[in-house]
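Design job #97: recover the sequence.
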């Protein structure tokens, strides 16, 4: 029986200011070791935009103040495609399928051990792509890897009294993040993705992406540091 897990790989850990080759090298070694330990394991890696998305979106706003949200979103989506193409190439030959840019397409095949995906269309982030693919392939867990170790009760950069959470219900999480997506918005998990995950009875684990041993602990069902939303 195949065991599929989805990792939403934040652009902030792929390319925080430029591509982090050292991280990607260590991540590749850990993930390939995880796959080799059990032939039934399969992973879906969904790549965010990171610095390229932010840089191009900021440039557009500086040059053309009339740019709408859709145009900004498309720049971010193209950045995810660039990161996705890089991650797909890194994991050859474990990847035998093309980069997924539409999680609802009838043409997706998942013949390899790893499937790599990126952004789809304006209106939500790659977190939503991750949830769509999780539903499609029966994955009950999405591991959301970003530059934060846990979800807080409030933005800790603005509120010194914000507290980290080990667990939170979908209802309480959605109250915190709202129900609308805006390009470049920084939330632990996309509001649109959250609504779909809640409806599907999915579990999302938010954790620090650069802590690779912790990521392996989550994948292997061992104790880990992070916030579980369910």
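Job complete. Output follows.
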């Amino acid at each position: 029986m195949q065991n599929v897990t989805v990792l939403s790989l934040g652009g902030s850990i792929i390319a925080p200011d430029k591509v982090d080759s050292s991280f990607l090298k260590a991540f590749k070694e850990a993930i390939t070791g995880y796959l080799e330990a059990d032939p039934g394991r399969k992973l879906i890696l969904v790549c965010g935009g990171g610095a390229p998305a932010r840089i191009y979106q900021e440039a557009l706003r500086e040059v053309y103040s009339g740019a709408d949200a859709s145009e900004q979103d498309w720049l971010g989506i193209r950045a995810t495609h660039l990161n996705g193409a890089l991650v797909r190439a890194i994991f050859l030959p474990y990847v035998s399928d093309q980069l997924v840019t539409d999680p609802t397409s009838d043409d997706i095949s998942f013949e390899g051990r790893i499937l790599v995906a990126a952004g789809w269309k304006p209106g939500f982030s790659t977190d939503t792509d991750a949830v769509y693919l999780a539903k499609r392939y029966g994955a009950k867990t999405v591991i959301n890897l970003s530059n934060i170790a846990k979800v807080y009760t409030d933005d800790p950069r603005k509120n010194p009294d914000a507290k980290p959470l080990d667990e939170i219900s979908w209802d309480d999480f959605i109250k915190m993040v709202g129900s609308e997506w805006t390009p470049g918005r920084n939330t632990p998990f996309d509001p649109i993705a959250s609504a779909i995950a809640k409806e599907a009875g999915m579990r999302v684990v938010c954790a620090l992406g650069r802590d690779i041993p912790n990521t392996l602990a989550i994948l292997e069902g061992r104790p880990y540091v992070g916030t579980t939303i369910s």
